[in-house]
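>> Question from a student workshop board

For tomorrow's exercise we were told to take the sequence and the ligand below, predict the bound structure, and bring the output to class. My setup keeps failing. Could a helper post the expected result so I can at least see what it should look like? The ligand is heme C.
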Amino acid sequence: MRVAAVMTAAAVLTLGIAGPKGGVHAAPALIDPHSVMSDPEQARADYVEHCSGCHGQHGDTVPAHLPELQGRVGWFMCTPEARAYLLRLPNVAHSRISDNAELADMMNYVVFVLGEGTAPVGTRPFTGEEVARERVHALTNMNLTAERLRLANQLVRQCHAPASIRALYIGEKR
Ligand code: HEC
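>> Workshop helper replied:
Here is what the output should look like for this input. Compare the format with yours to find the bug.
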């Protein structure tokens, strides 16, 4: 499964490089929410309740020392490790949403709706099984920053993500 997903991403990249702006996602694909979430309304409500306090209703809380999700977070779906990172984030893995399928739906809302077409075309949505598998390997706040930077470099190298993905938000002073 994972190999197939990576190959799909690679195939998309090949096409993307020839795209109008030289970017993979010059024209974000519109997705049908029902194709990636069994209950889009519940997923949105869960996001607003559990995540928007820090990340904003539209994933757009800036400036704050918080990662900007809007129009960016989908890039993390491009490698298996970065995809797993999204489910291992402390606030996600330890979320009070104990139902794995419900959490998968909410993360699909984050990646496919807030991410606005930055997930590679053909990306498989998260499933409850995948959430169950990854959330037991929650990252600690200790190693989070280094791990994020390592993965961001991977996205730039392997997926041609914009270099700005290394920063938490565009314009971050480091
Ligand atoms: C208390 C504030 C807070 C809450 C609540 C919170 N987050 Fe976060 N989130 C952060 C911070 C800070 C980071 C940066 C990594 C870290 O320190 O955990 C982060 C990192 C992330 C990232 C990685 C983005 C990147 O560019 O690396 C995602 C995705 C994310 N959070 C999604 C969520 C989701 C989904 C929820 C709701 C279940 C949530 N967060 C709840 C503060 C929060």
